[in-house]
Write a structure and sequence with these properties.
By secondary structure, the chain is α+β, with helices and mostly antiparallel strands. The chain is built from 9 helices and 5 strands, in the order αααααααββαβαββ. It has helices at about 10-20, 25-35, 45-55, 55-60, 65-70, 80-100, 105-120, 155-165, 185-200, and strands at about 125-130, 135-145, 170-175, 205-210, 215-220. It has a 5-stranded mixed β-sheet, sandwiched between helices. A hairpin with a 2-residue loop joins β4 (about 205-210) and β5 (about 215-220). It is elongated, with a radius of gyration of 21 Å.
């Protein structure tokens, strides 16, 4: 059913303005972004199918432009561009929160932030969150990609970037495209190598977070730091 044929108090736009965004379901909020459906398929139905396809709002936030292109109705550029823009705004909003307060006052936010950046990537990426003396985010950088081993992640480069950011501490992070977040022996060895290298310049390693689609693991919480 087209949105215009719904009762006024059931239309997502009118409902949002009258009762606030919290009153809307996920499909209704997404329908506002999509605006139009397909022939024979209303926009609310399309929005629900999009959520079902990618595993809800969290899964949708972790999709890439190429993933969205495969969904019927998003082959054009306009709607995909809007969804990608929303994803980028979510990343930036979370980064602003981490810059304004101590990172570990909200460990869940750190994991979610890293998932937004890394979980959807099809290749392994090693990233570092550089923190100030109050453990607030200064910058995040993706430093290495490919198969991550002690030989492909260069401690000297990590130390150099930490000094350039005047970092007091770091959070290491990488993704596992395979879908499991369990740390390998190579992950543990790499963490200890970087911890020792950064200690030489008085930079602490607070955590190493491994992310995959829908999951994140803190090595610090597992007692591996």
């Amino acid at each position: 059913m087209p949105l215009k044929d719904l009762p006024p108090d059931a239309r997502p736009r009118e409902k949002l303005l009258a009762r606030g965004a919290a009153a809307l379901g996920d499909a209704e909020l997404l329908a506002l972004l999509l605006r139009t459906g397909l022939p024979g398929q209303g926009v609310l139905q399309m929005a629900q199918q999009l959520l079902d396809r990618f595993g809800g709002v969290s899964g949708l936030l972790h999709t890439t432009a190429d993933d969205l292109k495969t969904f019927k109705g998003l082959g054009g550029t306009a709607k995909r561009a809007e969804l990608i823009a929303v994803l980028e705004l979510a990343r930036r909003a979370m980064a602003e929160q981490l810059k304004q307060r101590e990172v570990f006052s909200s460990p869940g936010a750190v994991k979610h932030y890293l998932q937004l950046h890394l979980a959807a990537k099809t290749h392994e990426v090693f990233a570092v969150l550089f923190l100030d003396a109050q453990n607030r985010l200064v910058a995040m950088e993706e430093l290495f990609r490919g198969t991550l081993t002690q030989t492909s992640v260069y401690p000297r480069e990590v130390v150099l970037r930490a000094l350039q950011h005047s970092a007091a501490a770091v959070v290491l992070a990488h993704n596992h495209p395979s879908g499991t977040v369990q740390p390998s022996r190579a992950d543990e060895a790499l963490t200890q190598t970087l911890k020792a290298a950064l200690a030489l310049v008085d930079v602490r390693v607070l955590d190493h977070v491994i992310v995959a689609q829908g999951e994140a693991l803190s090595m610090a919480e597992k007692g591996l730091i």
